[in-house]
Amino acid sequence: MRKTVLIAIVLSILILVSAYVSLVYGVINVNFTDVINTLFRIDPSDQLDLVIFDFRLPRIVIGALVGFGLGIAGTVIQGVTRNGLADSGILGINAGAGAAIVIFMLFFQGQMDLTGWLSIMIMPIFGLIGGILAAFIIFFFSWQKGTFDTGRLILTGIAISSGFGALSMYISLKMNSSDYEMAAVWVSGSIYNANWIYIISMIPWLVILIPLILRKSYLLDLFRLSDISSKGVGVPVEREKIKLIILSIGLISACVSVSGNISFIGLMAPHIARQLVGMKHQFILPISGLIGMFLVVIADFVAKNVFTPVELPVGIVISMIGVPYFLYLLVKQKQ
């Protein structure tokens, strides 16, 4: 417990440092005094308010929330499937949620403001439907003789991800130019359009779903045993697995609705967390969330500054790290 608290403190410091660096460095650099004066309304200026409150701070907060949600969701998916290579992006759940959101955008194109309250609150629900559909298809084809087949799970997930990705691209090409640009954000995975409405719309999902997942963390420890052993201690395995999958898909949908298809956070964060705090999910879940926070915040800083004046989607930067890490895990698991 003491080790976990210490690691959580170190990760929190890293997140705060990353957030501060992302806040002060950019096309317009600001110093520490400017940040303090702006945040605490000491001699504020319109220019600094625009840079900090409208552009940078919402982006940092969205990145942190998305990373936290995807890190926890990835831990749940790996625990339920007993597969260390499972991730919401690799398995196609992100792509399914994203495709549903793109369909929503096509259905309402020109009829409503897609950055307004109504659409932002509805989009996660559409994402939830798409994510559940993708998960159902994946688990249906991966289920064999009462257990998940690891090989089928990965192959089916990759196929479903490619299929939903192609569907999203096809639908986005049917949109008008302005809606197409917005749809492209979700397809590539980017938080450059972050705002405070997005943040407020995400918070209820996180506040409700994450405590429910943490309460069931002991089940993820039991799922490391065989299903027969878990049933032997009185756990309704299949019912609890479905509940946890739906909770994780709800988290993924809330994240995808504001950030698009960001993959590999749910793959990397749980592995790093297990190396740091051991195998108890009571500790893995929060640490995985903090690691996801740090990864997205630092990746977004790289995406918007390293390649200036071109800005890369944060999803691409994370994939640059995630793909080699996935291959490393694949080789390690094979050995």
Automatic annotation (TrEMBL):
Q: Where in the cell is it found?
A: Cell membrane
Which Pfam families does this entry report, sorted A to Z?
Answer: FecCD
TM ranges: 57-77, 89-108, 114-141, 153-173, 193-214, 244-271, 283-303, 310-331
| SUPFAM superfamilies according to UniProt | ABC transporter involved in vitamin B12 uptake, BtuC (SSF81345)
What keywords are annotated for this sequence in UniProt?
Answer: Cell membrane, Membrane, Transmembrane, Transmembrane helix, Transport
Checking InterPro entries in the record gives:
ABC_BtuC-like, ABC_transptr_permease_BtuC
Q: Does the keyword Membrane apply?
A: yes
Topology of the protein relative to the lipid bilayer: Multi-pass membrane protein
Coarsely, its chief localization is membrane
Under PANTHER family, the record lists:
FERRIC ENTEROBACTIN TRANSPORT SYSTEM PERMEASE PROTEIN, IRON-UPTAKE SYSTEM PERMEASE PROTEIN FEUC
Q: Which family does it belong to?
A: Belongs to the binding-protein-dependent transport system permease family. FecCD subfamily.
The protein here is known as Iron ABC transporter permease
Which source organism?
Cytobacillus stercorigallinarum
